[in-house]
Amino acid sequence: MVTRDPAARLALARTVGRADVHGAWWPRGRVLEREVVGLFLAWPPEEGLICRVDYWPPDWTDAPVAVAVPGRRGPLRLGHLSARHPHRVVLRLLDGQRRLLSLVPSTAPLAVGVRRLDAIRRPQPDPHAPRRMDR
């Protein structure tokens, strides 16, 4: 599934694989305060309401703890992820669920970024599905 705004460079997985990566995000820069607003606005409402975003600090040039988002009542809270989760963003939803996004570096060449987003959009094969045996 793709968000309504293709300029957002956000791709969501159709199915969640074993790695539990729900999508990929390819921000345009490394200033989180600016980029997270676009992510929030591009997030499909049917996926749930984002109430917090956790990130790995070395991926960004700033380290905000909250960001004002247009149309949202109150600031969006931000937090840090440990070194066990490099190049990831975790979206915490109002209903308690979490969505793990793989972060594509903003400096990635166009072909690499597009390939990473497309890879997320493709449905993952079900390891428990019966295999077709051709003769």
What does this 3D model show about the protein?
There is one protein chain. This protein has about 140 residues and is an alpha/beta fold. The chain is about 15% helix and about 25% strand. The protein is built from 2 helices and 7 strands. It has helices at about 30-40, 110-120, and strands spanning about 10, 25, 50-55, 65, 75-80, 90-95, 100-105. A 7-stranded mixed β-sheet has the order 1-2-7-6-3-5-4.
Descriptors for this entry?
2 helices, 135 residues, globular, 17% helix, alpha/beta, 7-stranded mixed β-sheet, single chain
Distance between the termini: 35 Å
- Overall mean pLDDT stands at 86
Strand content: 15-25%
| Major beta sheet, strand line-up | 1-2-7-6-3-5-4
Helical element count? 2
The major pleated sheet works out as:
7 strands, mixed
State the helical fraction: 10-25%
Order of helices and strands: EEHEEEEEH
- Strands, total number: 7
Low-confidence stretches: none
Cα gyration radius (Å): 16 Å
Shape descriptor reads globular
Structural class: alpha/beta
Could you say how many structural domains there are in total? 1
